[in-house]
Each structure stands twice: as C-alpha cells, then as structure tokens.
Design goal:
mainly alpha
Length: 51
C-alpha cells in the first residue's frame, strides 16, 4: 500500500512539473511576442516620421 501511495505522489509531482513547464513556455512566447510587437511599432513609427 505504501508503494502505491509513493507512485501516486510521484505521478502528481511529474504532472505538476509538466504543467509548470508548459505555463512557463507559454509565458515566454507571449513575452517574446510583446517585445516583437513593440519593435515593429517603433519601426513603423520611425518610418512615418521620416515622411
């Protein structure tokens, strides 16, 4: 019975780490997208000012 409890605990720990990694990856992509949009907006604004 103890082995089953340990196995269930390890399963939930692995599940938690998988979810944490996924959330971290999504957050990183969102942050990268925001930075890319800011750079594009700055370039467009600079292009409009030159005219």
């Amino acid at each position: 019975m103890v082995h089953l409890s340990v196995a269930i605990g390890r399963f939930f720990e692995a599940l938690l780490w998988a979810v944490a990694r996924s959330v971290g990856m999504v957050a990183a992509w969102v942050l990268l997208g925001v930075i890319a949009l800011a750079v594009v907006a700055m370039l467009v604004r600079a292009g409009i000012r030159r005219r």
